[in-house]
Amino acid sequence: MAALSQLIPAGLYSPDRFSATLLSATSGFAAQTERDAAAPTAFSLAESSLAQKFGMSSQLNNMPFIPAPAEKKRIKLYSRDFYAACTLGGVLSCGLTHTAVTPLDVVKCNMQIDPQKYKSIASGFSITLREGGMGGLVKGWVPTLIGYSIQGAGKFGLYEYFKKTYADMAGPELAAKYQTVLFLAGSASAEFFADIGLCPWEAVKVKVQTVPGFASGLRDGMPKFIQQEGVAGLFKGITPLWGRQIPYTMMKFACFENTVQALYKYVVPKPKVECSKTEQLGVSFAAGYIAGVFCAIVSHPADNLVSKLNSNKSATISSVVNEMGWTALFTRGLPLRIVMIGTLTGLQWGIYDAFKVYVGLPTTGSAPPPEDK
Predict the structure, then answer these.
(1) What b/e string do you get for 267-283 counting C-beta neighbours within 10 Å, with b at 16 or more?
(2) What topology is assigned to 80-358 in CATH?
């Protein structure tokens, strides 16, 4: 060993120097180990299970774990969360769509109030743009947004509630046999309450849109309306509003539900459960548009009454009928309203069902009932 040490230069082989180097390296490693031990280490569940398999579980007791992603809570049908989701879907559905078609609504209302001046759809848009600019076409959008958001909440949220309540009262057999009656009863009940929330905002909207110089919008229109006609005047049009909206909504929901069933039975080449969500939403829009055309026809006479009553403080239902005549009551402004309501209703059902899909609920409309054998 001594002979070997003589062959190696002393600068490379020195026991004292080697010991000092080894001690320094060992101390540095120990210090790094202590720092690593003090720092928290995150393990996934898979890693922790593997560690337990190799006997390291005791070392993991004080170490934090990365939790697995929480599973998205599913909304139970006909629960409180279900009705809350349907109510919010109704707010988005009606509030957004009615606000979007405000220009059509402005022209329609003016054609109903002053047919001598606004003789056609084209002239109605032309005159409105010439007299009020682009701002004239969106007059009354704020009361429209607020009023129809409130109405949409009641219309859709309460419809789902009343439909289920009446079906439970009738029992499974009668509910299946008379499902259209349940659609009609549920929608009529829902709209009765929804219109109470809509009425004040509809009164201000029509006044702002049809009376030149009355107000620029909701901020000055609501106080001026109350000053002139009182709070009770905001609800003067509730009866014709019910006359317009309740038949409209009964047709909207009953026609939609039955059209959905007919489309899946006769048009769509596969059952609803086999359709993608996109295909189901396409059916919702198509059924909604078809329902909207019938809605416009059924509710149009009352729509003329509402416009006339809200634009003229002294007007009554009988005076409006005498002034317009029955033919004009049913037909004045109808083509534009068919376009407006058809598009509106189709979009409403599309938005409403899209929101339901977004929160994890099925689209509206059931499979067709089984045929009698």
Answers:
(1) ebeeebeebeeeebbeb
(2) Mitochondrial carrier fold (1.50.40)
